[in-house]
């Protein structure tokens, strides 16, 4: 292929500019192996829908251990098989449930879990984001999760891809038989009001593209609209060769430092003015599947 001088000069200039000011995607793509941690199979939940969608969820055991244990017990007793996605509310949540919420719960299942909406800051570590937050005195990262904090307690932020436990009116806390995932603008008013049990690392685009429900709050009005769930399985219960290898970026790594700075002040060639600020949910923790 022949390159004309003017085009060649433009490409060289563009390449130089990109090298001087890498964008977040480039930083993630070139992050060394030392910048990544492998998610333990005990913390990975694989969800497959009857129409072939594959979703992988990292469980938030550090924030809602009782609710997470309930979800794992439901998975191990195959309670999700034959369940369904029953609600898709535009720019809010996608919600799904087990096959039969009235069935006897599995052994060890906690029917009335505590309100695991926040936890002590002590013992988990906290890295401030460095920018103001509208929903918490401080925003930042704890245990490689986006969180809010008041200096004493810490809680997961309800960002895009966050998986939480649906519940009725307080004092109900939800038991894990109905879950939701945030599919739009972060509804941070939900922070500290529902238990967060995970985040989608693979397949969020598949959940986000489902047809919207036409009923109140986005519920499907006809059972034929429901999206059946084929299975939900803990990765640790699969043969080693069948387990997905999912990694998330270490938030104490130099690569994450560069990624955060780039998210806050985009100076790559497309941008005319750098924002010099970023919202917590606009700094999603990078993840990748290694095949």
From TrEMBL:
Stated EC number for the protein is 5.2.1.8
Which keywords does the record carry? Isomerase, Rotamase, Signal
Q: Which InterPro entries match?
A: Cyclophilin-like_dom_sf, Cyclophilin-type_PPIase_dom, E_coli_cyclophilin_A-like
At the top of the EC hierarchy, this enzyme's class is: isomerase
What positions does the domain PPIase cyclophilin-type occupy?
A: 46-232
- Which Gene Ontology molecular function entries are recorded, alphabetically? isomerase activity
As given in the record, the signal peptide range reads: 1-20
PANTHER family for this protein: PEPTIDYL-PROLYL CIS-TRANS ISOMERASE CYP38, CHLOROPLASTIC
Protein's name according to its UniProt entry: peptidylprolyl isomerase
């Amino acid at each position: 292929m022949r390159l004309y001088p003017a085009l060649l000069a433009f490409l060289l200039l563009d390449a130089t500019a990109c090298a001087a000011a890498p964008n977040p995607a480039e930083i993630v793509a070139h992050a060394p192996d030392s910048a990544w941690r492998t998610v333990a199979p005990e913390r990975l939940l694989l969800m497959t829908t009857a129409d072939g969608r594959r979703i992988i969820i990292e469980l938030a055991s550090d924030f809602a251990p009782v609710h997470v244990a309930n979800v794992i017990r439901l998975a191990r007793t195959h309670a999700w098989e034959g369940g369904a996605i029953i609600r898709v509310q535009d720019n809010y949540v996608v919600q799904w449930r087990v096959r039969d919420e009235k069935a006897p719960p599995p052994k060890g299942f906690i029917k009335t879990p505590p309100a695991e909406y926040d936890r002590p800051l002590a013992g988990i570590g906290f890295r401030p984001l460095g920018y103001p937050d509208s929903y918490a005195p401080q925003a930042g990262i704890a245990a490689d999760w986006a969180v809010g904090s008041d200096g004493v307690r810490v809680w997961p932020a309800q960002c895009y891809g966050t998986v939480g436990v649906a519940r009725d009116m307080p004092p109900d806390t939800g038991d894990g038989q109905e879950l939701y995932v945030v599919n739009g603008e972060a509804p941070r008013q939900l922070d500290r009001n529902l238990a967060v049990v995970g985040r989608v690392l693979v397949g969020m685009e598949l959940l986000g593209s489902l047809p919207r429900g036409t009923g109140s709050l986005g519920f499907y009005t006809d059972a034929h609209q429901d999206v059946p769930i084929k299975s939900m399985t803990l990765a640790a219960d699969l043969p080693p060769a069948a387990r997905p290898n999912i990694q998330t970026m270490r938030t104490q790594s130099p690569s994450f430092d560069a990624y955060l700075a780039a998210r806050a002040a985009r100076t790559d060639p497309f941008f005319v003015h750098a924002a010099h600020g970023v919202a917590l949910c606009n700094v999603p923790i990078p993840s990748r599947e290694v095949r």
